[in-house]
Amino acid sequence: MTWLESLVSRALNDPYLSDLTRKLELKYAYIFLYQRDDIDLTDKEFNDVLRFADILSRSNEAVGRNKAYKIISLLYDSYKDDPQYQYLANSILTKLGNFASLNIAVKNNMDVDTVESMLEKEIKKIYQKVPYSDYVFTDPQYRLFEAMKDSNHFSFSGPTSFGKSFIMDAFIQYIINEKHGGENIVILVPTRALINQVTARLKKSINRERYRVLAHPIVPAIYKDRGLKYVFVFTPERLISYLGEKENPVINYMFVDEAQKIIAEKDSRAPLYYHAILLAERKSIKLYFASPNIPNADIFLQLFEKSLDEKMVIKESPVAQNRFYIDFVKHEGRMFTETGDDIIFKDLGKKEERYATKMLVKLGHNCKNIIYCNTVADTIDFARGFSSQLPDKQDERINSLIELIKTYIHRDYFLIDCLQKGVAFHFGRLPQRIRERIEKLFEEKVIDYIFCTSTLLEGVNLPAKNIFIFSNAIGNTKFSDIDFWNLAGRAGRLSKELSGNIICVRLEDKRNRWDNPTKDLRVVRTREIDAVHPLVIKGQKNFYKNLEKSLEFKDFTKTNYSNSEKEVWDHYANIVFTHQATKTDSILMSNFLKKNENGKRILDKIERDNHIPTYIMEQCSNIKIAYQNDIWNSVKEGEKAFPNEVNVDTCYEVLEKMYNFYNWGDEESKGRKPMVRQKSRLHYFAVLMYTWMKSTPLNMMITNVINYYKRKGEIWDQNGYIPFDSHNKVHINMVINDLISDIDNILRFKIKNYILNFYLIVAEKNGKKAAGPNWAEYLEYGTMDKDTIELQNIGLPRHLAVLIKNEYMEYLMFEDEALVEINMEELLSHIDDEKYKEELTELKEILE
């Protein structure tokens, strides 16, 4: 141990530092909780704690460097103008390489530089400069970037605020320039909700003319034969679709964002993620995994059988976080400290009139606040209840969004009431167009409070000063350590503030609302995150035995399983057989055979009876092979897959055919929100499917479905049917939220997958021409019009594609139904900027 390391070790273990840190935290808590700064440090204490921070900043380990940064952040509110504070903050933050925080702490004050700090600053600005950018890496970002440059695959994890997207963007820029624009790249994201955000970000950061950023698994004709290269932003299903087309350009690199989704035990999409990445790995694509807070980041390399050496776990955070708990059941509050001894506040958590509103207003005044509520119903209820007690907020940007919601969705949508008070809610069922506008207004501090569900855990980049956590669960399942810190880690915005606040709030004695504080708060207090052990690798909980049960259509090993567990077992079982049919070596396959002595016999029998080509199995990995073979055997010579004519009746006929062939009565009728609780539900989906495929605008679809429920006379509400009242705003909002969710999760995902599978089987057996139109394409794009599909393939959302198709076709040139040219200047200049003001702004952001 060097003399400096010894000094750091002594400082970390010095009781005096613990006392000083605790006093600083108490001082900060009084400022935050009570808006009082009446706990003073003596001159000696102030100088001593800064000296401690200076020593700790020289450490090579994250624990010392994090504590040095924490001290600087705790002192900031009271001492930011103090010359001694600025002098040492400058030195400490320079040593940490945290230039974003340095600009806040000392505001580029040149008077605080010493020769040593000035020299170190200039050296880091040169060596740690982000390539092809004006930004500078922090020390751990720089170490990671340099390690990635020398690798063929890599896995890293770090705090949520570490800047994983920033690193990936910088590395992509490096690849593009160092490889002279010769590589195609994919960024894999977990959901469609992230595609637009990542695409927009990349379009701003990639400045090479030869590159295009695309989000659909098709290279449009307008870009072909022009020597272009591509950065694709795909979900797993879009990646599978892309890799299934042999004519598509070769992919060289793939970055897997939010990689923890691959191994999430209770996420029914995890097998799809695994399957997609394994298909990419088989094509020798270089894989890079990014995940938040996972202590054993090499697990992803192990899962895909890569060398375990090329990994990095970053524990150093560029933003500090202060942790609080307010309990309105036991009427107390506490701050979780760096020393582990809680600071108790007996006067917090008192129930009085409008207590939740008063807390949010007091603690969230003049800063950005995210309030996590878990369920959509709770999110809307809390947002409405809170906003109803606030004064109206006058802002033209809010008024503009309100008018858009009235025309694009419905005049009775509850979001309008909230926005009038500077409040919003945010969840997956919001249309992408509206969600993006909310995020932008929140970023610009026009909206002060956002109530949200776990959509933020999907990777949506939306940091805030304060994160209030009203529930410690996702759905019915309590947070994992990773889930909690992925959400809570968004407290504090790098380059905007030095620290953020995490406030866990128990509002009532209710399940999954911090109902077991001793156990539930462990992860908040200790900040420890357990290593992850994927089912595919470890096979715990009879995982492989249940795959065998699925393949044999036998009862699973547990009786009370969730629908998501069943989906996971069934999907992985399908993938196991696909690996058998394609002779793919994988950990999944080898562990299945090791754990099940009859495994090989079962797979061999299925293979002997199988007629489905491997490319169809790979495209449709979530559909049981037995159903596919039944369809193969029943398809008659010359049979069409689907009718040419599309109306509500033909949609119902197709849905009924899918219901019978794929056994929806058993496969899709279980769980809390099944696709078809009863077969009569197909009538609703027939209406939805028809209007969606006919390019009907969202507001008209909502009107159509409201009329459907008026005719039906009842609507499902949580536990049963209730009479439907078209004048009841609650009922209208139920229809709107369910419809938007059903478009995304049912039409464009579940039903589309069944439709695609059926089409591929018929086309394989009878030929594409005989099979007729591919309705899966209509469901994906929300239109039957080829021109509108072409416009979406170049990156336009459905509503803009429909608008241009209907009113501005003269500025487009097509050859053989393929878009080959857009007269951009003429198109933008001729769009009516009064009638289509919002649309024109969106179009310019996408195309220019």
From TrEMBL:
GO-annotated molecular function: ATP binding; helicase activity; hydrolase activity; nucleic acid binding
Limits of the Helicase C-terminal domain: 359-551
Domain of life the protein comes from: Bacteria
Keywords attached to this entry: ATP-binding, Helicase, Hydrolase, Nucleotide-binding
Entries under Pfam families matching the protein: DEAD, Helicase_C
Domain Helicase ATP-binding: 145-311
KW Hydrolase (keyword) present: yes
PROSITE patterns: HELICASE_ATP_BIND_1, HELICASE_CTER
InterPro entries listed in its UniProt record: DEAD/DEAH_box_helicase_dom, Hel308_SKI2-like, Helicase_ATP-bd, Helicase_C-like, P-loop_NTPase
PANTHER family assigned to the protein according to its UniProt record, in alphabetical order: DNA POLYMERASE THETA, PUTATIVE (AFU_ORTHOLOGUE AFUA_1G05260)-RELATED, DNA-DIRECTED DNA POLYMERASE
Name used for this protein in its record: Helicase C-terminal domain protein
